[in-house]
Amino acid sequence: MKAESYSLRTALMLFILLPLVLLTSLAGWYGLQGLERQVRSRMQEDIELIARAIRVPLSDAMARGREGSVARTLRSALQISRVYGAYVYDANGHQIAATGPQSPTKRRKAVQLVMKGQRQGEFERIHGKPFFSYFVPLTDSGGRITGLLQITRKGIDFQEYISEVRYQALGLLAFTAFLLAIVIFYGHHRAFGRPMRNIRDSLVLVGRGERHHRVPLQGPREIQELSLGINTMLDKLAEHADVLAEQQALQEQLALRLRQSEKMAAIGRLAAGVAHELGTPLSVIDGRAQRAMRSVADASLASALGDIRREVERVSSIIRQLMDFSRNNPLRRQSVTGDRMLRSVLAMLSDEFNRHKIDCRIEATGQSPFFHVDRLRIEQALSNVVRNALQAADRRVRIGWFESHANKGFVVEDDGPGVDRELRQRIFEPFFTTKAVNEGTGLGLAVTHAALEAHGGYIQIDRSPDLGGARMRIVLPDQMEEV
After folding, report:
1. CA geometry: angle at 482 spanning 476 and 483, to 5°?
2. All domains of the chain, ordered by start, with CATH?
3. Is the pLDDT of residue 482 over 50?
4. Parallel, antiparallel, or unpaired: how do β-strands 370-374 and 407-414 relate?
């Protein structure tokens, strides 16, 4: 089940902007309430000031019985825009002068207000509309209450002003919230949005196979630390992947070598059986042909018997190579110099070099190293490699030795066509050959490979930088143990 989630921007809106707006609204509401009270009080004070201003002339006019002066004073008060109506009552609550709409105050209420002799302001409704009335007692020179002054103002004036203040406060709040939202959106984009999007895009690229891509270090320090942690993790994963790939390649190589060894062993067992079964009949054929050649007088028949003996010798040579390939005897190690083994091989193959008119030389620098090997098997391996070189060469073959801190061995180079890359592994397979018919059996390099593998060594094939043909490096470990 997929868990519900929301973006960081939404979290900022929910947990920062919304509480901030609510707190601002609450503070604004309390402030608006106080402001409304102050506005209401100020508007009431305006009416009080007007009432006080005309109270004295009204009291004097009433004391002198000048009703015309009372009416003129009320009309002057009505000219003030904030005054809706002005009314004068006598001591008995009878209205004696008025300007503006009909007085909303009843006679009984006016009498009560006259009797109290106190200033009073109150809200009341006239025809369903709110009004504010302020009452001031009128007195003579002796301080005796002679009447009552009432000045009214529309309640809508209060409401309109207060509503205007409210709308302004709400507009300011909305504008502030809008600015905060813009600030949060922009801040989120600059500080979090773009760096986090870079992290996401980088991980997508890595997931698509771009293993070497890394997250750019951008944004605040915390985001950079996160990016650095991701890059470190990707580096570790890449290292583990490389190690795993190397292990898999090594495992595949070992498996291939194991299969090759098993195949070689099977071929060796087959070759040993075939060689054993063919050895005796071939000896009999060669012996009979030899005796027949002694007693025959016909030259053509003697030549045919000679051909039989040569072919028997060729088959016997193949059988000996099969026996060498299948040999699994313990190594008989001895210490011998590389120079000595090379000269022994050249002595064995000197006739072949002369027959093919190939110039073969030993070219090496320094003192010849010692090898602790089975001399016969290594010399046989060397002779097979050198024979292949002289068969492939045009005119020159160069042989020598090398020594390093980990291994040592021999180098055989020729000026022939070289060995194609796709054939460099197959030439060690038994019976594989690129030579013409009757020029090779395909067992020489297989025997060489088996002998070197028994010593813990191997053979490398590449192109000779000097002669241009093939270069074969026979590599033997410095500290050799029987494999």
Report:
1. 85
2. 8-173 (3.30.450.20), 216-328 (1.10.287), 331-477 (3.30.565.10)
3. no
4. unpaired
